[in-house]
Amino acid sequence: MARQLAMVIDATKCIDCKACVAACKVANKVPEDQWRNWIKHENEVPRVGAAGGGKARFQPGACMHCDNPTCVAACPTGATYKDAENGEVVINEGLCIGCGNCIPACPYGARFRNAEKRKADKCNYCPERRAHGLEPACVDTCPTKARVFGDINDPQSEAGRLYLANKDRLKRVAALTDTKPNMYYLGDLGPEAWGGEAVVPASMVAMKQSAPLIKGIVALSGLGVLAMLGRQLLAGSDHKEDGDA
Amino acid sequence: MPKLMHKRHDASDIFIHWFNAACWLLLLLTGVGLIQNPAIDPFGSGYPAALRSLVGGGTNLLVIHEAIGVLWILGFVFYLAVNFKGARFFLAEVFTVSPGRDLPWMFKKMVLMTLGPKALKTMGQDPNLPEQGYYNMGQKAFAQASIVGGVIIAVTGVVMLLSDRTFGAESTVMIGWAVALHFIAVGVVFAGLLVHIYMAAISPEERPGFRSMFTGVVPDDYAKHHHRLWWDKVRTGGK
Known about the structure:
The complex is a heterodimer of chains A (245) and B (239).
Chain A: E1 5-10, H1 19-27, E2 37-41, E3 58-62, H2 70-74, E4 80-82, E5 89-91, H3 102-105, E6 112-113, E7 120-121, H4 127-131, H5 137-141, E8 147-151, H6 158-165, E9 183-186, H7 202-234
Parallel strand pairs in A: 1-9
Antiparallel strand pairs in A: 1-8, 2-3, 4-5, 6-7
Chain B: E1 5-7, H1 11-34, H2 46-54, H3 58-82, H4 84-94, H5 99-114, H6 117-122, H7 137-163, H8 172-202, H9 207-215, E2 217-219, H10 220-226, H11 228-236
Antiparallel strand pairs in B: 1-2
């Protein structure tokens, strides 16, 4: 089975310390006021000892490297794509011109336009760290080890072991567009249905809808040329050529 | 005795025509390779994948496309600097349409080229074409599409070029539309280009016109037959 890098997160272990958010920002030099990952919590954080107070619920997250990546479908150039080898959703920064189509196409808000690079940006599982045998920054830094990263199709990996042992009770964030995210949660993850709708910008819709029309116009023109060529070859020209003596 | 010839194109006109042709060919080949999305790419994902691996990746392909695009625009800036008068004359000729003469010409020409003169006679139409000026309506229609399309392609191209160099996130709606319009304009101009190439280079009809795109001159009888109104002007010395 092909590799699928993913995160299996034990939400009950998260203490909302935001160390993962800070570590990611530092490791990936994410510009001011922008983040690649987050910790969501219930609107009302319960107070200790208050009447009716429950337990706090925290939900760490980031790009979910979906199996049905709506961001990829919104990209005209293939600058963002689903890597066939390890299931990552990758951004090729050399090909991305920062048109922004993919940003509203993510129902989880995991993408943003990097203010310095002016290109699409999001979690990439820290490839530079992985190349050196390290875990992604957020996973490495997590003091309670709530975030577990690895190939969920590999039963030998920690992520794979967690994934296979808990398959029936793992939860995913629900969105209006089912993108089949590869971020799995153990335990009570709190707000689990905050995902929105994948919105493809009107310009991209126009491009997709005009594509068959353009092919039609080009085909019609090509047919016209073939008709003229056919007539030229079969009937010869009706035209006495001028100036050609 | 040398045949009587009439001047039609300056050296700068000939240069810009072939410079544009070469740029368009390269821009089209590289540009189609930059589209990779099953809902859009004209020939499937095989062509962009092959071209990208040929030039060492999509990043290189984008740089090549951008460089040729900038060169193309600079070529036109150069042309306008050298022969602004010629450009103005061209624009005036191309956008002057007299519907009473030009629309029947267009219709009849299309029937003649595909079905032949008998078809026109069957329709009760005179197979003789209305007289045309410096450009015939077919040339004007393609020139109009090329000029409007070319301006759209150049402007949207510059917007995309600057997208990750100067524009902020607030400009993404404009950039998204630049991508879409670039694609649509190229498609429409390309459809016209097929007919242009056939008429100019393959059909025997316009052979002297094709030659004039190298020599700059056309024979008197060709001018008389194809561009009668222009021929009249040239003969009387009026402009």
